[in-house]
Amino acid sequence: MQAFFFIFFDHFYYFCPLYFLTAILSISVLFLPFPHIFYQSPVFYPIGVPFMFSRLKSKNIIRICFLFLAAFFVGTGAAFLHDHFFPAAVPTSSEGNWGLSFQTDGDPPVGNATFDELKKFDAFYAQDTGEKVIYLTFDAGYENGNTPAILEALTKHQAPATFFVVGTLLESNPELIKQILAAGNTIGNHTWHHKDMSQISTMESFSEEIQTVEKLYQQITGQEISRFYRPPQGKYSEANLKMAQDLGYHTFFWSLAYVDWYQDSQPSHEEAFEKLLGRIHPGAIVLLHSTSSTNAEILDELLTKWEEMGYHFASLDDLIKATAS
Question: Its Gene Ontology molecular function terms (predicted)?
Answer without folding.
Answer: hydrolase activity, acting on carbon-nitrogen (but not peptide) bonds
